[in-house]
Amino acid sequence: MPIAAADRAVLRQLGERIAEIAALPAQQASIRRWKALNARRPERPMVMIDQVCWHEMPIADELAPRVAEPFWRGVEIGMRRLLYQWEHMRVDMVVEPWLEIPRAIHNTGFGMHIDEERAVLDPANGVVGHRYHDTISTDADIDRIQTPRISVDRDADARRAEEARALFAGILETRMQGAQPSFAPWDLLAMWRGPEAILYDLADRPQFLHRIMGRLTAAMLAMLDQLEEQGALGYGHRTIHCSGAHTDELPAPGFDAARPRPADLWTCGMAQIFSTVSPATHQEFELEYANRWYERFGLVYYGCCEPLDDRIDVLRTIPHLRKISMSPWVNVARGAAQIGSDFVFSRKPSPALLAVDSWSVEPVRRDLQEVVDLCAAHGCPLEFILKDISTVRYAPQRLWAWADAAMEVVGG
């Protein structure tokens, strides 16, 4: 079905604005700095903002979608958010002179279901509380874990590619973008079984967990094989786990844009439920499996909310590791001393500072400066990744002020 003239006009207008911004010299300067950081030769600490509470951001009609057709409405929303972020909280974001269009990749999943209760404080907010009920408590339940089947709707890809070229002709290049898979089986298992039961299993039923992880890891690696075989992997992604991904080290030699390999890509992974387990347990139940995934990729970002400052020696076993998440709950001094100049210290400042009753930017500034000073003392390549922003109390200006303060602190 042809795209309506009104939809086309809206999309082209947004595309024109993105193209103007992408042509600014600042984009190449930011790319250069991200490449330097990712090579562990930073010019200065870098800053990103992601996972924003977009329902609290609207100012005037900057984010209001106007496109009627569902697929292109989704593209429009992404374009509007990109422009909003550039105008109000750009930090070290990069606006590329092309528009990525997601490929039509279908995944049948692992055949499991989630049984949960939800606690909702704000119906407009997608961030809610979860209480998960156990759906995988026996060996027979483990046998229900299926290997995902991947398929690509090439007709849909061709149609979207042609529509995109016609929509943005003379304005923006368009690129069909494939998958950027990650390894987080413990996040899945926490939803299938529940966090408390898993932590008891580590002591009471370790072989039960090993059997789950063996089957789930095999299924995920088989899924990765299918993505590669079908040419469904992407390449040249702008970010990896909310962090700038620009690098001169990827893709690997022998790269073919029609059939990207894991070796051409960043990947990421995490085991957030292991926030309270020992480094040895983390190694046995997570990394002994995860490293089979990581060894296939070009570069690795590891971690999320789990504090990792006490187990850097264990993380050093991860093949191709380049960035380590340093969540709000780490001992920054210990993490910096252990990481040194070997990896990027990927600091996750606490988004809770944006949700307080009485807002002031000064606690933000002090928190950021402390990390800058400690990382400088230990020679750590440093980035700040503000994410998981569930609320700013409907005051988007708080986030804008955070961005300004962060750039002042890092010297941007």
Spell out the helices and strands N to C.
HHEHEEEEHEHEHHHEEEHEHEHEHEH
Query: How many β-strand stretches?
Result: 14
What percentage of amino acids are in beta strands? 5-15%
- Overall number of domains: 1
Shape: globular
CATH topology grouping:
TIM Barrel
**Count of DSSP-assigned helices:** 13
How many strands, what sense, and barrel or not for the largest sheet?
A: 6 strands, parallel
The name of the CATH architecture is: Alpha-Beta Barrel
CATH class descriptor: Alpha Beta
Could you report the average pLDDT, rounded to the nearest whole number? 97
Care to describe what's here?
It is built from 13 helices and 14 strands. It has 412 residues and is an alpha/beta fold. The protein has a single domain (42-59, 103-410), classed as Alpha-Beta Barrel (TIM Barrel). The strands form 5 sheets. A 6-stranded parallel beta sheet has the order 1-14-13-12-11-10, with helices on both faces. The chain has a two-stranded parallel ribbon with strand order 2-7. A two-stranded antiparallel ribbon has the order 3-6. The longest helix has 24 residues, at 206-229. It starts with a helix and ends with a helix.
